[in-house]
Structure formats: structure tokens, C-alpha cells
Amino acid sequence: MTHTAPASTPLRPAPRPAGRVHRAWFVAAAAFVTIIGAAGFASLPGLLIEPLHAEFDWSRGTIGLAVSVNLALYGLTAPFAAALMDRFGIRRVVSVALLVIAGGALATVWMTAAWQLVLLWGVVVGLGSGAMALAFAATVTNRWFTARRGLVTGILTAAGASGQLVFLPLLAWLVERHGWRPAAVTVALAAVAVVPLVWLLLRDHPADVGLAPYGGAYAPRPAPVPGAARRAVRVLAGAARTGPFWLLAGTFAICGASTNGLVRTHFVPAAHDHGMPVTAAAGLLAVIGVFDVVGTVASGWFTDRFEARRLLAVYYALRGVSLLFLPMLLAPSVRPPLVFFIVFYGLDWVATVPPTIALCREQYGDDGAIVFGWVLASHQVGAAVVAFLGGVARDAFGSYDVVWYASGALCAVAALMAMVIRRRSPGAPSTAAA
């Protein structure tokens, strides 16, 4: 007589045949391509400043305001997006976000006033891009990987740089030859093209396909978490009562100020001020993207092996030194010292992300992805402030020099803050729940 297991006995996944690649790596690959396809919107703002100033006579401060709203909402949406992914699933949230990005970017083609730029590129694209923020990478990594989390975080973080590499030269060529509108349309089409990939290949949880996370034990799919917004705010309230949160938020705000807010937004117009062609300056940014891939993946590997806070201190210190030298390197043509800066800075561009995510996970446990969403919000607020003030400084002083020097000094402060973060002993309760 055949024995039938009781209905209450949980079903276990079939053992995975030896030698077969774990499904988690395919999910990570799909997420990587998704982030690349959505990266066009992040590549465009720095290329828009000069053509919009020339066509509409808007000040660089006004254009920088739209970019700063975009960057701020990109960050402030991220923690809610992480909670929404827990509630509705990764595929639904990311697919809707990509369509919102596409709609906002496409609508800018018909704008005629500065407030429309702020509304469309700032608010609409900013809100949509928040769900494509690094909280997406953190969520995929936390769900699908137990081992190799640092490495996978580095790979997914590098996807944004890879997208920059893919899109920047093309967008710069379109802007220079055909104007900024075809470039905006290209960004919209790229976002739409990624939606089928997200829907067909991404899966929300390993249990959906009867697997355990890579390197971990099988667990049933958790029930959807209701009250996504309340949970995001509750996690923030708990984390905000702890010192590590403010140190992580402060260092990451400086990270955003010295990368997205400064170099990504203002490097091309700053180089153009020195007589460098826009396409050449955009090409240098793309090269930063090449070396960022190397640096970020290496940083993920280091994060699996070395203390995260010490890595952060080293990264910020090196970045600050490099920014102090940049004003002396800009010239009408690309010279070897500037190429050295591009390589050096590229290796450090977002190398800070894997150790920051690791510290959020170490300090806040299961809430680490949402806490990182709030830390990312500080990153984008820092970027937003410098994106705006950088344009104002250029209008006021006729040069970006003061912004480079101030950012270099801030990076030194971030290095000191990283070293102050205390380690949480293994087995201690996560501080967000305290």
C-alpha cells in the first residue's frame, strides 16, 4: 500500500542536478540587462544642459533644478519601491516603473516651458526611476542569493555603469547631430524595450520555481507584506534611532554629491567650458563607466572578504584626492593626466555600494533592503543639492572649480565617518527592529 504524505507536510524542491547552473544566476543576468536598458535616462541630463540653455535660454541653475528634483525623487522613491516589491512583486513594480520612465521622457519632446522640464524630467521620470534604483539590486540579491551576495551586488551595481557605456556615446552623437529630442525618444524606447524581458525572465522569489536561494536553504515564499508605505516609514523610524543609520546616510549623501550630482551632471559642460567637444567629454564619461564595472565588481569581491567600513574609508579618501586635482587637468583636448583621472575615478565611481549594502544588511537584518532604500535616498538628496548648486556656482563664478574642491573636501569627511561606524556582533538583534 502506497503511503500518502499528510497535507500539512511542506513540499520540498526536487534536488538540482549536479553541474547545472543555479536559476539565481539567470535572474541576476535578467536584472543586469534590465538595469542596463533603463540606464539611458541617467545618462542624458548632463547632455541636456547646453542644448536646453541654447534653445530656450533657461539658466543652468534652472536646468539643474529639474535634474536635482529627478535625483531627489529617484532616492526618496527607493525605500517605498523596496516595500512595494515585497507587497506586489518585483516584476509588477519594475514593469510599471519602466513605462512611467518612458512616458515622462517621451513627453519632454513637446515641452516649451521650464516648469514642464521640472514636472516631466524631474517629477515623472524621477518617480519612475526610483523603482529602478539600487534597492532593486538589493532586493534581487537578498532574495536569490545567500552566498556570493557581495559579488552579485557589485555586478548589478555595475549594470548602471554598463548602461552609461552603451548609451552615452550614442546620446551625445544624437544631441550634437540631431538635437536633444531624438535622444529623449531613444531613452523612452529603451525603457519600453526592457519591459518584456522583465515580465518573462524575472521571478520574485526562488520558491516560485521550487528552489532554494543560491548557497542557502529552501524556504517557502513569504506571504505578501501589506501596508508597504507604512512598513517603509516604520523601518525608517526604527533605523533613525541608531547611530549607524546616520553615518551610512551621511557618507552616502556625500557619495551622491560627488558622483551623480557633480560628475555625471556637470562634467560634460565643465569640460566644454575648457574647449573640449561634447562628444569627447561624453566619451570620457563612458570610459568612467567601463572602469566602474571593473571597480564595482572588484568591490563586491572585496566586500565578501574584508571589513566593509574600512573599504568605504579607503574609497572615499581616494575619490576626494582625485577630485582635488581635476580642475588642473581639464583642457581642450584629452591628455594623459586626464585619462589617468578618468581611469582612477572610474574604478571608485560606485565601488561604495557593495560595502554600504553589506553594512545595512549587517546592522538591520531582514529590513536591510528597505534601510538601504532610505540610505540611497540620502545619496540622491546629496546628488540633487550639488546638481542644483553646481549650476548656480557656474552661473555665479563662471567656473566649476569651487564645486570640485568642495566635493573633494566632503569626501575626506565621508572617509572619517565610515571609520566611526561600529560593528554589530554576530547574533545581535537587528537595530531597525529595536
Automatic annotation (TrEMBL):
Source organism (scientific name): Streptomyces subrutilus
GO molecular function, one term: transmembrane transporter activity
One Pfam short name: MFS_1
This protein's name: MFS transporter
Record localization: Cell membrane
Keywords: Membrane, Transmembrane, Transmembrane helix
Topology in membrane: Multi-pass membrane protein
Domain Major facilitator superfamily (MFS) profile, first and last residues per copy: 26-426
Superkingdom as given in the UniProt entry: Bacteria
Transmembrane parts of this sequence: 24-49, 61-81, 93-113, 119-139, 151-174, 180-202, 244-263, 283-302, 314-332, 338-359, 371-390, 402-421
GO cellular component: plasma membrane
Primary subcellular site in the record, as a coarse category: membrane
